[in-house]
Design a protein that fits this description.
105 residues; elongated; binds zinc ion; 3 helices; mainly alpha
């Protein structure tokens, strides 16, 4: 059953389905084997999987935010070109990495 489970949304660890093997119910709980995050216990173990697996996708930035991100990225690139007495490389890379995470090109 574990191959049907997505990885933990918190740590990316492998998740496993815990079923009521000793009892006579079909109940189940999904647990992350790395950080031990757990789903609710569901009367039917299939429902535990259905509750564990959905993921939301990050929303793309709005046009205004994208425009600001592009301007920041452009500024970062210009700073990198200036690169005079003071090295901006670390700051520029930090900004670029942050922007990429936020969805800027
Ligand atoms: Zn986890």
């Amino acid at each position: 059953m574990s191959e049907e489970l997505k990885k933990c949304p918190f740590c990316g660890g492998e998740a496993d389905l815990m079923t009521d093997e000793l009892g006579d119910s079909n109940s189940g709980t999904v647990m992350c084997m790395s950080c031990f995050a757990v789903s609710n216990t569901h009367d039917n173990w299939r429902d535990a999987i259905l509750a564990w697996n959905p993921r939301t996708e990050p929303k793309p930035p709005s046009a205004d935010v994208q425009e600001a991100l592009d301007a920041l990225l452009d500024m970062a690139n210009r700073l990198q070109l200036l690169d005079g007495a003071y090295s901006w490389d670390i700051e520029v890379e930090t900004i670029k990495t942050a922007l990429e995470r936020m969805g800027a090109e």
